[in-house]
Amino acid sequence: MSKLITSLTVVAALALSACSTTSPDVVQRHDAQRLSQVQDATVLSSRPVVVDGSQSGIGGVAGGVTGAIAGSSVGGRREGQVVGVLGAVAGAVIGNAIERSATREDALEIIVQLRNGERRAIIQAKGNETFNSGDPVVLVTTGGKTRVTRAPAVTPTAAPGSAS
């Protein structure tokens, strides 16, 4: 029974820690059908970085509970209590480390120059697009969060009433 509880606790912790993403290819539900600000820019540089994982406490709690249950089943009553406490502490430390590792993301730091000459740096998770110096991009800002995407190709249109 304790192995089942241990397995379920670890699976729940990993599932909850994997629910968040900063990928530019994933749009959050609350950002759908919202007007976003779009700015034209040019990529100055791009480099890979790692976004450190989070420690919400879920991994520590899950690991602590798992360690306490596993440890308390060792030996007699007194030994079980001591090993249960040690198991809880070790489980919490391991659970935090697992959560932090599971929520790390490979990302890009993209430095861009806006049309008005201002420079901005944006860090976002790696998506399907690559960015090289000189690439035209757009900055899409929604709800205080900005993502970089390639600028769509623009075809010139004739002004109304102009003769060809």
TrEMBL record:
Residues 1-23 form the signal peptide. Keywords: Signal. Residues 58-99 form the Glycine zipper 2TM domain. This is Glycine zipper 2TM domain-containing protein.
